[in-house]
Design brief:
Ribosomal Protein S5, domain 2, Alpha-Beta Plaits, seven-stranded mixed sheet, 10 helices, globular, binds L-homoserine
């Protein structure tokens, strides 16, 4: 039966100062999901590639499967047969929003194959329910930009109150993935539940400065604001050589550098592609100094999000 193939991009969650509420979509890498109608009722995952055998075929244990099932339930179409193929084109447990991308691709592919007419915004809750399987809660900082594109800010994760930030032209992202894995749920479990008033004030000021910098295309303000005083210090120890990698990015001219999602990937926000290339090379060198091979991804901000391809 003919299917629909959807690409959904990798994302950088938090962007340092927006823990659990702000994320950005990349042009590449990304995942692909193919959805087809089937005569057998329910959701079945028939093929997974690129995951090295690490992802379950049981749809209730798979982010794409859960997202598709919740969408069918909402549509009152749980007996509809759907087959999913999942093609992972990015590393799992990397901090690149891999599970969110698969969930985002799945809901759009299922929606398109069933011709629901739902908008991507209307599909967001079902993609989020899929992603919840691995992160343990509803955080939209990966799934919203993967589905909708751009830099997305979630005012409230529970009510899916998400907003796109203006992004100045020319900004470039460098993301360096050291070849190791961190599991989001475990890294999150080690976070302190408390913070000082001073941390709260500084982080709020930095997030506000970041948003103003984006709207006013004030590149210097973006640089001054991209300083995470709460989460990064708690997670740096999970990423070998993190501060050397960060220094390498900053020395190469990055506006800011921090941990992508729950890590271990590290991102640098750059004013242009040349700085991004140089930062990537130097960050990779710094990882090599602690005996970690890595992959560099360079990308402008992806404004489209998930697309039928
Ligand atoms: N914002 C999350 C974190 C990413 O940093 O743990 C996964 O949702």
């Amino acid at each position: 039966m003919s299917g629909i193939k959807v690409f959904a991009p990798a994302t950088v969650g938090n962007i340092g100062v927006g823990f659990d509420i702000m994320g950005v979509a990349l042009e590449r890498p990304g995942d692909e999901v193919v959805a087809s109608k089937s005569a057998t009722p329910g959701v079945r995952i028939t093929k997974i590639t690129g995951a090295g055998g690490k992802l379950p075929y049981d749809p209730e244990q798979n982010t794409a499967g859960v997202a598709a099932i919740r969408l069918l339930e909402f549509l009152g179409a749980s007996s509809q047969g759907i087959e999913l193929e999942i093609h992972k084109k990015m590393p799992i447990g990397s901090g690149l929003g891999s599970s969110a991308a698969s969930a985002a691709a799945a809901v759009l592919a299922v929606s398109e194959v069933l011709r629901t007419g739902l908008s991507k915004r209307e599909l967001l809750p079902y993609a989020a329910m899929g992603e919840r399987l691995v992160s343990g809660g509803i955080q939209l900082d990966n799934v919203a930009p993967s589905l909708l594109g751009g830099v997305m800010l979630a005012r409230d994760n529970e009510t899916f109150d998400v907003h796109r930030l203006h992004a100045p032209r020319g900004l470039y992202m460098t993301v360096v993935h050291p070849h190791m894995t961190l599991m989001t749920r475990e890294v999150r479990a080690s976070l302190s539940q408390g913070l000082s008033l001073e941390q709260h004030v500084r982080q709020n000021a930095n997030l506000a400065g970041f948003i103003i910098g984006m709207y006013n295309a004030d590149i210097a303000l973006l640089g001054r604001s991209l300083q995470d005083v709460i989460i990064e210090p708690q997670r740096a120890g999970f990423v070998p050589g993190f501060y050397d990698v960060k220094n390498a990015a900053m020395d190469a001219g990055a506006l800011g550098c921090s941990i992508s999602g729950a890590g271990p990937s590290v991102f640098a926000l750059c004013p242009n592609s040349l700085v991004a290339e140089n930062a990537g090379r130097e960050m990779q060198r710094a990882f090599a100094a602690v005996k970690l091979e890595s992959t560099v991804y360079l990308s402008p901000i992806n404004q489209e999000g998930a697309v039928v391809c």
